[in-house]
Amino acid sequence: MKTLKDVISLKFKTSESEGVIFHGEGQQGDYITLELKKAKLVLNLNLGSNQLGSIYGHTSVMTGSLLDDHHWHSIIIERHGRNINLTLDRHMQHFRTNGEFDYLDLDYEITFGGMPFSGKPSSNSRKNFKGCMESINYNGNNITDLAKRKKLEPSNVGNLSFSCVEPHTVPVFFNATSYLEVPGRPSQDLFSVSFLFRTWNPNGLLVFSNFADDLGNVEIDITEGKVSVHINVTQVKKNRIDISS
């Protein structure tokens, strides 16, 4: 396919921070890749470069944040030559691609949810998308509907289910004054805690627990955007351990 205009749209939700949403490439060096990186949306696009190096077409644009929140997010990519409108959840970003070429020349298949292993270093370091997509539309083709009705030829549909499984986690929201207190486990010599959290606040107490028999305490907090663990032990000389990340 050699196109001057492209319109690509879809919705996705995921709890993963990394993953290729779709990818296409051509023998002329053209490519388009939309992926999640550190829970942000990244569009990589190249309408062509020349071998002399005087025309360098690679363009990369990043938008959004915290997109691994398992909520639906909508994407629309509208391209007319080198002019691109990238819309994420109704927030539009306009940019022009680098280089001098206007056509996107893709020789191979377009893949959604991952990219084929091409032997290039860029392909084996990227993770496949893990989550749900719906309303995939590529230049007027309803990809989701065609895939479900097995009307995409040729196509390789690997282990897809046409439903969206909800996660079994139950989130808890804390305001500035709320907290959750649970009973400890006396006469245990192991203290273990794990949790996921998300906050805009740079400071706050996450976990606090006293040890039994007045042996000390453990505190996990956020201080200026860094997570810190403080362990106080009363019966030894080196009675305080501080870990920050």
From TrEMBL:
Domain Laminin G intervals: 1-164
Any one Pfam family match given in the protein's UniProt record, by short name: Laminin_G_2
Gene3D superfamilies assigned: 2.60.120.200
InterPro entries: ConA-like_dom_sf, Laminin_G, Neurexin-related_CASP
Source taxon at top rank: Eukaryota
N-terminal signal peptide: none
Record-given protein name: CNTP2 protein
Species of provenance: Bucorvus abyssinicus (Northern ground-hornbill)
This protein's encoding gene: Cntnap2_0
